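[audit] Reproducing an earlier prediction to check determinism. Same input, same settings, fresh worker. If the tokens differ from the archived copy the diff job will pick it up downstream; this log only records the rerun itself.
[audit] input (460 residues):
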Amino acid sequence: MSIDEEAAAAVAAQVIQNAKFFDKSDGDAPLARARDWARRNATQTSDLRLTPMMLVAQEHERLGRRFLAATPDALRRFFGSFATDGERHLHEVVPAGAPCRLYCDYEYEFGVDVARDAALMQSTCAPTADALRAAIERNARGLTDALVRRAREKYDAELAPFVTTSHKPSKWSMHVVFSGAVWRDASHCGAFLAEVVRMRAQFDPLAEYYVDPGVYDANHCLRMYRCTKLKEPERSIVAVDDAGAAIDEARWRRSLITLFSVPLPNSDERMEMTSTFFDAFYDELAGADAPSDARIRVLEHDGARTRSAPRGVRPGGTAAPRAGVSLTSTAHVDPAQMDALASVRGALEAALAEYDPRAFKLLDGRPWLRVDCRSHQCAILRGEHRSNTIFLMIDYARLSLRQQCYDPQCRRSQQLPWRAIADPDAIEALLALFDAWPAATRVPALARWLAPCPFVAARE
């Protein structure tokens, strides 16, 4: 056998990894590990076979929430392995800082705030809840059309909306995914939507109540087409013109936010990409490193407030983001602080047990920690939400905490005041985070900023 034949045989013998599950049974931060694995396996074997991958969260009865990194074809096979929609509990993850399609989540829940329902019925001249539901439906479809028109005017981009619904008697719910263009990341999608909502404010005052702005947060998970919730297996997300039980391949692909095809410059061909793949090679494909005459177009909005995500393993040798702690920020986080968070997580989970914490996420640039919780008990609502959960913002420089909420109405309400943290174990854990925070020693003006902090004077 010649050298070339031996090399070819060695390549053929390598197993291409198309999919892998991650959950807490094999370590913390399964989403961070899934994303890191997807980046590292974007190219495989010595001939650099491309394997773009998507990230999906699955609600599992025994394992809880687990994450799947998979190629589109592998995901489609897994998707089709379920006999019915009622068995398929999958959510598409929109990775922080990664390119994606424009998407919208419209929803309105009746009965949570009876006074609000009555006020909206009066302002829209809707005599019944059904009439208000019909008004929301009309306005949402009008907003969708307005997004298409505005994209054509502002970006010369032709968007094609794919509309799905998941209604129930107490809730009106619609998802829309727009093919035809790729956006820099979810924050740019949210900023573009906000612009169009402002432009239509006088025609559509209801948008303030049915548009959910929370779906553009980092690493947000949205229930996928023809999927159900574990606790609501009877309520599937379906297209308006769905016919029969079979899932059409083309329709399934149109429903995806993080899978898209892009036209290759100076060519009639298109290339299929995923958010994780495009993000890993963004500089070469669409960034400053890409030749100006061969740069893939990505839409951006000036109103977006987040920064680009750190790159994964790329030809230049840049290291992938460190796995182990889930991050909300898309900017660099010092490894020492991630290690500190991993070491004190147990103490924080115990101290915050009443909120049933699910994930601890560092925010870059400020000494804040965001704690996602499973609890539906909301101090803003002064009651319990049916589906939305709460989260905590913790300022570990000032040792203060504030509960916030993912519910669209609660997000628009007046925020709760910060309150001091008194639990000694929680204080020790948060001080460990503060000590590992790079700005604690690298920002000269920090001493003045931290002057009100109760523990600063004691340490001097």
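[audit] rerun output stored. Observation attached for the diff report: Residues 335-459 form one domain.
[audit] end
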